[in-house]
What we know:
The complex is a heterodimer.
Chain A: E1 4-8, H1 14-22, E2 32-36, E3 53-57, E4 72-75, E5 91-94, E6 110-113, E7 126-132, E8 146-151, E9 167-170, E10 181-184, H2 188-200, E11 212-216
Parallel strand pairs in A: 1-2, 2-3, 3-4, 4-5, 5-6, 6-7, 7-8, 8-9
Antiparallel strand pairs in A: 9-11, 10-11
Chain B: E1 3-9, H1 18-28, E2 36-42, E3 51-56, H2 60-73, E4 77-82, E5 85-90, H3 94-104, E6 109-114, E7 117-123, H4 126-132, E8 142-148, E9 170-177, H5 180-189, H6 199-212, H7 217-227, E10 230-238, E11 241-246, E12 255-258, E13 262-266, E14 282-284, E15 292-295
Antiparallel strand pairs in B: 1-8, 1-13, 2-7, 2-8, 3-5, 3-6, 4-5, 9-10, 10-11, 11-15, 12-13, 12-14
Helix pairs in contact in B: 1-4, 5-6, 6-7
Amino acid sequence: MGKIEDLDFKKSTLRKINNFLQNINYKNNKRDFNIKNPGGHHALCAGLTENIFVNIKGHVGYYCGGMNQKAHITINGNAGTGLGENMMSGLIHVKGNVSQSAGATGHGGTIVIDGDASSRCGISMKGIDIIVKGSVGHMSGFMAQSGTLLICGDAGEALGDSIYETIIYLAGKPKSLGVDCIEKKMNKRDIKKIEDLLKTGKIKNLKANNFKKFGSQRKLYNFNIDNISNY
Amino acid sequence: MCGIVGLYLKKKSLHSKLGFYLSGMLDNMSSRGPDSAGFAIYNNKESKKNYKYSLCTNNNTLSNKFEKNVKKYFKDIKIKNISDHTVVLTSASPKKFISYMQKNFNEISLVGYGKSIEIFKQVGNPKEIVKKFKLANFSGSHAIGHTRMATESAITADGSHPYSTGEDECLVHNGSLSNHNNLRRQLIKKGKTFDSLNDTEVAAGYISQKLSENKSMKKTLTECLSNLDGFYTFIAGTNKGFAVLRDEIACKPAVIAENNDYVAVASEFQAMAHLPYVNQSNIYEPKPGVVYTWGK
């Protein structure tokens, strides 16, 4: 592990910090960074492409870690709308709560949220794994296509509305299920996947059999005149 | 877009810093609303008998003429001029004062009145508005502010927030309403008057109407959920405190930070990042369709 370098908003600007982290020079042997006084700035750590470790000491605004590839980002605070939007790989760990649309359209990698996520968590996700230790708001997993959404708490209205092939594991209760989202039978692969996610999220108070599995009924895949009211 | 902010101070010892904290909050929200800005300050200190009338004169020669005339007509009167706004402090009842204004100074707009509220709002970048009205010098128990990106009506002072449609009441709004024209007509039939074509003024009028029917703020805002179409995060103020409501779809952002000293509400965390000990506060997003209230 190399020396940890501090990037401080009191001495620098958002653009300079992002530009620096987006253009890491591996020859300098720097992999570890602390970001101080983030002050809720938007798009912090967006577009990172290298396997670096960024520790943000405070709260961030919108789209933190958007489009992330490979980087490991830890947020010691809360995050605003669109955390890790369209993330490709890597890991984002938020120690507080996050606002709406966390992990939206994410293709890969993992997001771990220690607190609650608000509405539309994992909207249109395309392969990412999202682990929420608290609860999620309404319309979470809306039109989610692939990947896994694991929720340790409860879910708001219309969980998994118009869902495609994302799998949702829920330990609490959904306020309601969205159109075409149903509870499904667990199999061995599900148990293994949940155990892996619990390990990644360092969750010890729950076991795989505490969760229920939700996914697509696949009734909205093709147009059917009888479903017109559901479209 | 648009940015909204609110700050409720729990400790009297902090009251002298209200304006200072709020000016930082508004300043930070200029990115969400560069067209105009405004704020309402609640301060009960001055007098329990007197009313404060906040006027937007827009014109210096007019304000000189107004000052001369109004001093002749009302005996106990104090006048505070700040930029193009005037606050009149008098024991004259709202009925008497408002009818005097309508008869003699119709071109001056009364932007708010009450025993505790003072309202200032004008066109321009929030950073300049804050300086122009010397917001940092104001003290009080709570305040609400708005930075506007105009959508529903023209960029004018009377298209700016906060909207006050009742004694010591005001509203700021992030979002837009779709049934405001119909609702305005219904409220006009009930005797409400409106100064602009703005959607938020209608919501403010709706809230004032419900409050005047002796409904609580909580009940009033809950009824907004079924009677106001559109999207919104509201902060509604009274002399007691303020309340926050987000519509049930909740497209419009809001964040709350609460600790032993204050409650801060804003569209984005950035607006409150400068507040003392904010990082150690309980920070959360208000839930859709839930009314949050703070106050005495």
